[in-house]
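= Tokenised fold =
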Amino acid sequence: MTLDDLDRQILQALQRDAGLSTTRLAKRLGLSQPATWRRIRRLQDAGVIAGRRLLLDAEKVGFGVTVFLGVKLATKGRVSLEDFERAIGAIPEVQTVDHILGLYDYRLRVVARDLADFERVLRRRIMTLPGVGDVEANVLLSEERRPGPI
């Protein structure tokens, strides 16, 4: 699918505020509401817009610590990637699971109420999974969300 300037403007606006109404977006772009709706629908049908999500402030809902974990699977026993992904996906504190190239096999984003809670999640839930080898933790100090290069 080829994106034109209006498509890119729509994507930029929806990246900043996914809840923006089609009517308000149309006014910003100088289009009619039906034309804007058709463009958004075309972008969704083509898979360019894969979904919309609600971003919560983790700290305000009681999760004051975010940790990025690098996980290297142990070579002994050769656990399958699918088994690891299924097991790690069942831990609610694990927000994202990224299969990566490099020193580690996976990068996880884990939230916890505090450091003691994170230690509990790490020791009792993550480290006990079959196949987990080396783990490196990096505590998030601050975060700035950037909309991307569209």
Q: What stands out?
A: The beta strands are 65-73, 94-99, 106-112, 132-139. Residues 59-139 form a domain with the Alpha-Beta Plaits fold (CATH 3.30.70.920). The CA atoms of residues 17 and 52 lie 10 Å apart. The first strand starts at residue 65 and ends at 73.
